[in-house]
Amino acid sequence: MLEELKQGSKLVGAKQTRRALKDGRAKKLYMAKDADPRLLQPLVQEAVRTGVRVEQVDTMRELGEACGIAVGAAVAVLV
User: Fold this and answer.
1) pLDDT tens digits for 46-60?
2) Helix-then-strand count for the chain, H and E
3) In the chain, which end has fewer C-beta atoms inside a 10 angstrom radius, N or C?
């Protein structure tokens, strides 16, 4: 599941994810299970509303590594 994110074109972070969802560029949303639900809820709702598939990742650290960054990531989107 994360191989697709490692290889593909992606955006990391809530602001960039929100923009990609609103612009219709998002193909799949990845969210960390241990991230703050208040941050994730509006993004997941927008993804569901626009028909973007949502995948869960166990930890923010794991998602950050898959995105190629040295810190954890709460959310990322494949574009």
Assistant:
1) 999 999 999 999 999
2) 4, 4
3) N
pLDDT digits (tens, 9 = 90+) for 5-45: 889 899 999 999 999 999 999 999 999 999 999 999 999 99
Residue with tokens 């869960």: 56
Amino acid at 4: E
Residue 1 reports pLDDT greater than 80: no
Q: In which residue are the tokens 């709460």 written?
A: 74
Neighbour order of strands in the sheet with 53-57: 10-12, 75-78, 28-32, 53-57
Supply 56's token pair. Answer: 């869960």
**Tokens 């949502």, residue?**
54
Largest CA distance in the chain: 31
* Pair type for strands 28-32 and 10-12: unpaired
